[in-house]
Amino acid sequence: MEKTQKADTLPHAEKVLTSIRSGSDAARSMIVASWARSAKLHGLAPDAASRGERWGATELRDRRDRLSRMIHVSQPTLHNLRDTISFSGCGVFLCDAEGIVLEALTSAGDKADFDAVNLSPGGDWSEKMEGTNGIGTCIAEGRSVSIHQDQHFRSDNISMSCLGAPIYNSDGSLLAVLDISVWRADVEGPLAKLISQAVTDAAGQIEADHFCDQHAGARILRGEGDNRRSPVLLAVNSDDLVVGATRAARKHFGLPAREAFSPKPATDLLGGDGAGPKGFERAEQSAMKRAIARADGNMSEAARQLGVSRATFYRRATKLGLIQSDKS
C-alpha cells in the first residue's frame, strides 16, 4: 500500500483541504478554522484564482466618507508606521470593517506588486473574497492576527505575510482594520514580532485618537491598564458623567460591550472610599473648586463668579473643607 504523504510536503491546496477534513485540526487551530470557513461557509477553493473584486470610485468615496474623521486623525500614525517598516516589500493598508482597502501606503517600487494582488484602494480582502488573510481573518476573529505565507487560504497569496489589527469605534463595534503586508521570505522570529507589535500599537493609537476626536468637548481620563495596544479611555462631561468609553475601558469597567450606555457618574466607575461630601454637596464642592481655580485663589472673585456673597462663600467653603476654619 502506498504511504500517505506527510501534510507538510503536500501541495498547498491539498494541505489546506486535508487539514479541513480533520475536525480535530480545525478545533485546535485558528488558521485551520479560518480555512474551514473559507471553504465551507464562503465556497472558496484554495487553488482557484482570486476574482480580485474592487469597488468603483463612487462606492469607495462613499466608504471613505463614512470613516472620514477616522481617516483624518489616522494620518500621522499611518505615516509613522510606514516609516517604521520602510524596508523593501512592505505596505501599510487601512481597511473598513468589511475588509475594503481605503488607504494604501507603499513605496513606489512595491506598488505594482501590491496592485497586482488587489492590495490597493477599493480592493476587497474579506475572508468571503480572499479566504484566510491578515485583514479578513482579523475581522472574523475580532482580534489581531498574523497570517504567514502558507497560512493563507489561497495558493496565490502564500508569498506574502499579512499582520492585521482591529480598530474599534467608541460604541465598542469594529470600525476598521490596520494591516501590514510583506513580500519577503524572511518575515519570521524577531522581525515578525517587531512588525506585529508595530501594527497593533498603531491600531491602538488610531483608536485612541479617534475616540478623543469623537469626544472633543469632554475630559478624557485614562484608566488602569491603559496602553498603546488597548486604550482604556473614558470621556467625562462637565457634570462629571462618563458619556463615552473605549472598548477596553468598557471591558475594564463592566460597561456594555457593543452598544450605547446611560451616562455614569465618574466617581462610581473610578472608585474611592466614599468619604467626603455626598450628592448636591459634592456638586457644590466641585463648582466651588472650579471657581477658586479660575480666580487663581482669590476668594472674593470666586464668590463673584458664583453669584454669592463673600461671607456665604466662606461659610460654605469652610463646611465643605475647601478652607480651614479660624477656630482652633
Helix/strand layout:
Blueprint: H1 12-21, H2 23-28, H3 30-41, H4 57-66, H5 68-84, E1 90-96, E2 101-106, H6 108-116, H7 127-130, H8 136-141, E3 145-148, E4 161-168, E5 174-182, H9 189-214, E6 219-222, E7 233-236, E8 241-245, H10 247-253, E9 264-265, H11 266-270, H12 279-294, H13 299-306, H14 310-319
Antiparallel strand pairs: 1-2, 1-5, 3-4, 4-5, 6-7, 7-8, 8-9
Q: What are its keywords?
A:
elongated; five-stranded antiparallel β-sheet; Beta-Lactamase; four-stranded antiparallel β-sheet; single chain; 14 helices; alpha+beta; disordered N terminus; Arc Repressor Mutant, subunit A; 328 residues
Concise description?
The protein has 328 residues and is α+β, with helices and mostly antiparallel strands. It has helices spanning 12-21, 23-28, 30-41, 57-66, 68-84, 108-116, 127-130, 136-141, 189-214, 247-253, 266-270, 279-294, 299-306, 310-319, and strands at residues 90-96, 101-106, 145-148, 161-168, 174-182, 219-222, 233-236, 241-245, 264-265.
Write a structural description.
The chain is of the alpha+beta class and 328 residues long. It folds into three domains: 49-213, 2-Layer Sandwich (Beta-Lactamase); 216-264, no CATH class; 279-319, Arc Repressor Mutant, subunit A (Orthogonal Bundle), CATH 1.10.10. Helices cover 45% and strands 15% of the residues. The protein has 14 helices and nine strands. The protein has helices spanning 12-21, 23-28, 30-41, 57-66, 68-84, 108-116, 127-130, 136-141, 189-214, 247-253, 266-270, 279-294, 299-306, 310-319, and strands spanning 90-96, 101-106, 145-148, 161-168, 174-182, 219-222, 233-236, 241-245, 264-265. The strands form two sheets. It has a five-stranded antiparallel β-sheet with strand order 2-1-5-4-3, with helices on both faces. It has a four-stranded antiparallel β-sheet with strand order 6-7-8-9. The termini are far apart. The model is unreliable at 1-6 (pLDDT under 50).
